[in-house]
User: Fold COMD2 protein from Fregetta grallaria.
Amino acid sequence: KLNIGVDTVQHGVEGLTYLLTESSKLMISEIEFQDSIHVLGFSDELNKLLLQLYLDNRKEIRSILGELAPKLPSYHSLEWRLDVQLASRSLRQQIKPAVTIKLHLNQNEGQTAQVLQTDPSTLLHLIQQLEQALGEMKTNHCRRIVRNMK
Assistant:
């Protein structure tokens, strides 16, 4: 009916979908949206229609995107135990420590538990890496990225 190729229609729909989802994700203002579509070279009438389409549907698009986001497990509680093997049949004097951690997680309205075991040196290395990652989150670059992700 449009006398246009199938690929052209498909690319147009995909482009429009991408424009609306990314704009809704970032919750850009009317002026920012107009600036974004102005560079595409459409007529003023089409730009106004696209703006109205965005304003009418951005909350619904955000709610749909929120439902599509993966549901990650969240922390509930932690139990830990330190085991030390002092001797065995072959070695009378040895010290072999092990840390056992039971991590309780909330997932899909239920609880799951993960049991982990490691030696103290690996645990200390893991703690250092996590503290370093938390320190990275305080940098301006990471804050800017997190702010744009919301």
